[in-house]
Amino acid sequence: TTKIMTAIVLLENLGVNNDLTLNTQIEVCKEAGAINGSRLGLKKGDKVTINDLLYGLMLCSGNDAAIQIAVSIGGSVEGFANLMNKKAEELGLKDSHFVTPHGLDMPEHYTTAYELALIADYALDIEKISEVVKTKTYTVAINGNGKTITNTNELLGYLNGVNGVKTGFTNGAGRCLVTSVNRNG
Length: 185
Description:
By secondary structure, this protein is α+β, with helices and mostly antiparallel strands. The protein has helices spanning 2-13, 30-34, 50-58, 63-74, 77-90, 113-124, 127-133; strands at residues 25-27, 47-49, 137-142, 145-150, 162-170, 174-181.
């Protein structure tokens, strides 16, 4: 669920102190290719657009996509975490602190259900995030080869009105869900 904040920081920092756009093709770094857990399936040297990294981040919860986004936007995981914490401060969050873009268990990485709701509410006002999180399946291109990914949010298309947002799992947190439903406005 940390990846909701990762998506916000990504989109709000495209073109800020860099020349990146959603269509920019990125070469995957060693750190992104080596991360464990849920993955988009990236290896060092692969070529993928930032747009496809965003879909891989939010649909299949790719930790590799999260690391590559962090390195591309923040220069490093630490630099990106600084941007995440700056955004948390701007949003008035008092009980959240980010160390990674993927949210794997770390003692200094935490948030609350309430603050995740605030983050999700903010994120859904960003048109691109709203579009991505309600997508059931999407085909990304890695090195020009198509790979279809499926949203881990099983409520999409199952429960009337569900339009996002993000599932999560770590050993420390267990199964998590930040969801949004819109019915009759």
